[in-house]
Amino acid sequence: MRRFYIATEEEIKRGETTDVYFERTRMILKAKGMDKVRVVAEITSSKLPNEWEWGVLCGIEEEAKLLEGYPVNVYAMPEGTIFRPHSYNGVKVPVLVIEGPYFSFAHLETAILGLICQASGVATAAARIKRAAKFKPVYAFGIRRMHPAIAPMLDRAAYIGGFDGVSGVLGAKLMGIKPVGTMPHALIILFENQVKAWRAFDEVIPKEVPRIALVDTFYDEKIEALMAAEALKEKLNAVRLDTPGSRRGDFTEIVREVRWELDLRGYRHVKIFVSGGLNENTVRKLSEAGADAFGVGTSVSNAPTIDFAMDIVEVEGKPVAKRGKMAGRKQVWRCHECFIDIVLPANAEKPRCPKCNGEMSEMLKPLIINGEIVAELPSATEIRNYVLEQLRKLSE
Questions:
Q1: Which of 164, 232, 226 is nearest to 197 (CA)?
Q2: What is the pLDDT of residues 284-319, one digit of tens each?
Q3: Is 352:344 a contact under the CB 8 Å cutoff?
């Protein structure tokens, strides 16, 4: 008997997390001798949540691992690609295409969508916050608000979206990076004295861990910040303000006040790290007020999902699709100078950019051929660098 209500990797791989109507569809196809009918199916989004103009594609490595071994060909945008729902010429942009007998992968559709819908939402929220922070350090602190079974996925998506680190131990381990964090209020409360707690942290924790003192447990933030600076002096890297909403008032003014008082006393080297209920808007304001780094939780870990849908657009080589969808296999072409996409039939000639007349490149690239992964699967750090490169260009 399992202890937690979670699916195993094997159950997901076998398609046991499917919606029941896909199982019934497979039964019908088998009974009617249609289990060999080949299709082309594409994944698109009609619109993004919160009036987002663009999204960050995340979860492609897991798609590859899910579909590996099945008799399909898969073409996808590289993981971390910033995409818009509609192309420059008004066509919905496919981010992933599957070709093969529909019977062979119908029961995987639920998992296929689930792997990218949530991860892409988290990665997009992270990228937007990273940009709102003016590319200052941002860290993922949100896994405590979500089911622990998906903590590593949430951390990976936030990191890929541009965050500089994650607090989760397992998530960091799976990505090959070190987890980051400061100290909890519990530590200070147990010592019943801020200075004793900060000094204990300094005495026990390895020197490579930055000394970031939590400064809002018992007294005013300004007072505790100065106490921490006096206690640890040049060893203090930053103070963290995690002020509860009931005491917060104008958080930007608190940040400005703490910065002023630290500078006035010669502690210009001490950074200000803020956390606690932050989102894209508050991060932007706090960055402008002088905050140096951010710990962001629920607004990223609980980011709205991107509503991708999978639709058949070709059956046995014949273009066919439900209403509202454009039939036929397609290719996405991108101008990396203008950052626009054109969607054309797969057999169309390579276009020129309609804005600058420059070169355009194919975005849907082979991921799986005949069930075998053929694409390089970059590390999370490599994908993150790709996202940041695009994000800076988008910001320009």
A1: 232
A2: 999 999 999 999 999 999 999 999 999 999 999 999
A3: no
Mean pLDDT across 40-47 = 97
**Pick from 143, 135, 183, 121: nearest CA to 163:** 135
Query: Which candidate, 394, 392, 380, 386, places its Cα nearest to that of 135?
Result: 392
By the 8 A CB rule, do 128 and 282 touch? Answer: no
pTM of the model: 0.96
Q: Which of 44, 72, 101 is nearest to 367 (CA)?
A: 72
Neighbour-count burial of 50, counting CB atoms closer than 10 A to its CB (0-12 exposed, 13-18 middle, 19+ buried): exposed
β-pairing verdict for 293-296 and 308-315: unpaired
The 10s digit of each residue's pLDDT in 100-128 is 999 999 999 999 999 999 999 999 999 99
Measure the CA–CA gap between 91 and 345, rounded to whole angstroms: 11
The pLDDT, as a whole number, for residue 31 is 98
Map residue 222 onto helix, strand or coil. Answer: helix
- Spacing of C-alpha 351 from chain mean position: 31
**pLDDT band per the 50, 70, 90 thresholds, residue 246:** low
CA distance to 8, 36, 144, 296, per residue, from 32 (Å): 32, 11, 49, 53
Q: Which domains does the chain have, with CATH numbers?
A: 9-120+305-395 (3.20.140.10), 123-301 (3.20.20.70)
